[in-house]
Design goal:
408 residues, alpha/beta, 10-stranded mixed beta sheet, 15 strands, 35% helix
């Protein structure tokens, strides 16, 4: 039997561990499920994060996308008001954020691989919280629930029709974004709106005016130059130059400052209106974005970043494939390049494994009691216990007892 002082210390540590676990459960909500703590990724990754629908459009496995491309961040879509009305955040209008476990699981898997996520607000369909919450303060409180639930460091306000045709709703959205920026120092905020040959249309310009009137400046204003009579990269880069002029006129910026606050969100492959954007178009736009030191480069969407079967999808636009010839995640690779990383030359076909015996620390054993400072190996990585634990598999989630020391 261990000495009395050792048994007392273990008891104290056990109680502390249980208290921390209980606190984590309380923060997660009644379902007891919260996403793993956010990992530290640079803002360049939030600026490059392509959109991913985690619950719809046959979502690919995010971890596999990361393995294949080197991607470290995703833009999860979309946070909406409930379909039946109200001011509580949901995924897609149907899945309440407060009781969510599915999206939290996706986020945890991404963070376990060293990545992170941003959440996108709005989109084309459904009812937006800016339309139903009644004030900037109420709208911000709804979005703060999303930030707190998942420990978010980034948000995207996707303001498009029909919401951006509603001046009161846009006032609420821009006001909410400003409040979130003040309450969450360092949060990365993007504002995405429709693109036209003139940069953006009448309602997009009114949105910029609203931001100016509220003295709100996000990390970037991004346009979506597709579904508006665009044809390939040349028309997109022309729209970006026009949008730069709009930003300069609205905010009094010079050209370089405007580009440093400007982004693009593209549609890979066939657009909703039958426009086509190929890998070559993405390369041209990427060259333009990097040459002009633009602030963001993203696309809709990872769900579509695969070839249809048959390859042309019979001339239809799909939410689950691109309708152009391609390899898996060809378009996502451009986001990785924008972030400054290099995609693997040979994407792995199976999860990498660590050869037996290459880890110096002893293998994790669920029946062993570990105390602060003990190290173990698990799944090819070395983990260190922060306090007493038993039976909790090493991960970056759970009670937070394990610290990931990296690959063996």
């Amino acid at each position: 039997m261990p000495p009395r002082h050792v048994r007392t210390l273990v008891a104290v540590l056990s109680a502390a561990c249980l208290a921390l676990t209980a606190a984590g459960t309380a923060l997660a909500g009644d379902d007891g499920m919260a996403a793993a703590a956010p990992r530290s990724v640079g803002s360049n990754w939030y600026a490059a994060a392509p959109y991913l629908m985690p619950l719809d459009n046959d979502p690919p496995d995010a971890a596999s996308v990361m393995d294949a491309t080197g991607l470290k961040a995703f833009q999860l879509a979309f946070v909406l008001a409930p379909n039946g009305g109200g001011c509580a955040p949901t995924w897609g209008g149907t899945d309440p954020v407060g009781s969510d476990t599915a999206v939290a699981g996706v986020i945890s898997a991404i963070r376990a691989k060293g990545g992170d996520v941003s959440a996108s607000i709005g989109g084309y369909g459904g009812t937006k919280l800016g339309q139903t919450c009644g004030s900037p303060e109420a709208t911000a409180a709804a979005y703060q629930q999303v930030v707190d639930k998942y420990g978010l460091k980034a948000l995207d306000f996707d303001l498009e029709e029909p919401e951006y045709e509603n001046a009161a709703a846009i006032h609420n959205e821009i006001g909410a974004a400003k409040i979130l920026q003040q309450k969450n120092p360092g949060i990365y905020l993007s504002v995405t709106t429709a693109g036209t040959a003139d940069g953006t249309g009448w309602f997009g310009k009114q949105m910029l005016d609203e931001a100016r009137s509220q003295s709100f400046t996000p990390d970037n204003f991004s346009i979506m130059p597709f579904d508006g009579g665009f044809s390939g990269a040349a028309s997109q880069t022309a729209a970006l130059a026009k949008f730069n002029s709009l930003l300069r006129a609205t905010f009094g910026w010079d050209e370089a400052t405007a580009y440093a606050h400007e982004g693009i969100s593209q549609m890979n492959g066939r657009s909703d209106t039958g426009e086509y954007f190929t890998q070559a178009d993405f390369q041209t736009v990427l060259d333009f974005a990097t040459t002009h030191h633009m602030a963001r480069f993203t696309n809709w969407s990872v769900n579509r970043d695969r070839q249809c079967s048959p390859p042309d999808n019979n001339g239809r636009t799909s939410g689950t494939c691109s309708s152009v010839p391609q390899g898996a995640y060809d378009f996502t690779a451009y986001s990785v390049r924008f972030a400054g990383a290099t995609p693997p030359t040979t994407p792995p076909t199976t999860p990498p494994t660590t050869p037996p015996g290459s880890c110096a620390a002893p293998a994790y054993n669920a029946g062993t009691v570990y105390v602060g400072g003990n190290t173990v190996s698990y799944n090819g990585r070395t983990w260190q216990a922060k306090w007493w634990t038993q039976g909790e598999t090493p991960s970056t989630g759970g009670s937070g007892v394990w610290r990931d020391l990296g690959a063996c």
